[in-house]
Amino acid sequence: xxxxxxxxxxxxxxxxxxxxxxxxxxKDAPLVFYYDGQPVKPGYHITEVKAGRFSALxxxxxPEDWTEIFIQLWDIDEGExxxxxxxxxxxxxxxxxxxxxxxxxxxxxxxxxxxxxxxQLYCAGxxxxxxxxxxxxxxxxxxxxxxxxxxxxEENRKAAACCGPSAESRCCA
Length: 173
What we know:
Oligomer: single chain
Low-confidence stretches: 1-11
Structural class: alpha+beta
Number of helices: 4
Mean pLDDT: 87
Helix content: 10-25%
Number of domains: 2
Distance between the termini: 39 Å
């Protein structure tokens, strides 16, 4: 049995390539991540970047296979620091690639902690340039049932194909 590629199931998430492409166009702008309704503190650090290849069996007995990149953010205040420029983030990732193979199309997960609360997992939304800064919203990464996620994605695809503008007269009431 072949492993199922879930990279298309959560299409609203971005990968590392997309994030770096956006940041490359705005290297001097402060990079501000938002999570739990708040921006990271200006002194935040990228404490670790790691890549992993995973093989698993989901709850439907389907083999799963994916790569994932984890970027760990330490959300702290540190002196008079300002938010990291997008170019510095870009340079850190470039430095990591000298030592660790990063699949730029891999699932991207942010691990965030303030050093007191336990680390939480987040996925990144599309970066937005606003007010001279690049803003990246991080959303909690929920547990999911992959067979159900695939079924819902297929049902949504069918509904869009059936009820799109050109198909409206065929199957939509």
